[in-house]
Specification:
The chain is α/β, with parallel strands linked by helices. It has a single domain, classed as 3-Layer(aba) Sandwich (Rossmann fold), CATH 3.40.50. Helix content is about 25%, strand content about 30%. The chain has a seven-stranded mixed beta sheet with strand order 2-1-3-4-12-11-10. Strands 5-6-9 form a three-stranded mixed beta sheet. It binds glutamine. Glutamine binds next to α5.
């Protein structure tokens, strides 16, 4: 790879921001946090971390970030959303509180805490062709799943075992990427590398 590494922001209103900054740097990006509206314009791509999507939504609105983020997503900015970040990118939520809003952009319906509230966390190996080779150790923490996805959405991974087998837990549409799980906590940077490549490609096409 040549050229200056892309500058990727991590939405830093709530959630596991630090882990994503580290994973992105390990994957070859320059990083910064995005907390204020004027910071939205500066980045070539954005990661929305895991956390609590109802809190994240409230803070995004309180900090005046909702409109500028929606505008950049609509204009094609690459975004990777993990867990609560996936919820934030969903066009539709299943059974959510009526006052919860998302940024949207991805033609999916997402169910929060889909594996059951009692299922706090679990891990599973997933085979994701786009990441090649070894299976990915997927860590799910009060995770959502994708209940249904539009035609334009490419399914990257489904749960492989147990009662939730078949449920979609990773997807991509254009330059938007989402996972129900948390690759930032495992030391396996392939998902972040895929996203950094998406951002690089996006910038190459636009320059
Ligand atoms: N259950 C959380 C929510 O609905 C997401 C959990 C996570 O991001 N680890 O926002």
């Amino acid at each position: 790879m040549t050229g200056i590494p892309p500058l990727i922001g991590v939405l830093a209103v709530q959630g596991d921001v630090r882990e994503h900054l580290a994973a992105l740097e390990a994957a070859g990006a320059r990083t910064t946090t995005v907390r204020r509206p004027e910071e939205v314009a500066a980045v070539g791509g954005l990661v929305i971390p895991g956390g609590e999507s109802t809190t994240m939504d409230k803070l995004v609105r309180a900090f005046g970030l909702q409109a500028p983020l929606r505008e950049r997503i609509a204009a094609g900015m690459p975004v990777y959303g993990s867990c609560a970040g996936m919820i934030m990118l969903a066009d539709r939520l299943a059974d959510a509180r009526p006052d919860q809003e998302t940024l949207g952009g991805l033609d999916i319906t997402v169910r929060r805490n889909a594996f059951g509230r009692q299922v706090d966390s679990f891990e599973e190996d997933l085979h994701i062709r786009e990441l090649g080779g070894e299976p990915v150790r997927a860590v799910f923490i009060r995770a959502p799943w994708i209940e249904d996805a539009g035609e334009s959405v490419q399914v990257l991974a489904r749960v492989e075992e147990g009662p939730a087998a078949g449920r979609i837990v990773a997807a991509r549409s254009g330059d938007l990427l989402v996972t129900s799980f948390h690759p930032e906590v495992t030391g396996d940077h392939r998902v972040h590398r895929l996203f950094v490549d998406i951002v690089r490609q996006h910038q190459r096409e636009r320059s």
